[in-house]
Amino acid sequence: MEPRFNYYATPVAAKVVKYVNSASKAVEDAGLDPLIPNLVLLRASQINGCGFCTDMHFKDAVHAGEDPVRLNLVAAWREATVFTGAERAALALTEEGTRIADAQTGVDGDVWEAARKEFSDDQLAGLISLIAVINAYNRINVLAGSPAGGYEVGQFA
Length: 157
What we know:
Residues 25-96 form the Carboxymuconolactone decarboxylase-like domain. By secondary structure, the protein is mainly alpha-helical.
């Protein structure tokens, strides 16, 4: 499959990606458990139907040492027994933050309170930012028709 538009070959995209990546780097200083961002990135990408990002974040997570069984269960995390309370709160917030238009109130109060109990202010700010950034990247890749399956770990390093 060929992309419908080679977004990443444009000068405008180079600028956008530079700034979005800068925001992503700030999230690294939030103090989140290093396993949580991989779960968040994968779940949002699954929800948004972004094959490119789903492929990339699965491969990156496995490369970082994440268990493929856990990654396979991310789409069914509510029924899975392999996630911690913090991971479950992060996945719930990811789902609600990604599907924000599906609820009249945006993020449900119970989901928000569960996240508040699990994360410090800096961690919560990092988590919210990570959800926003991956949703931006998902939309870029879905709109441009970026194909999935060819990502190699570290190709954007």
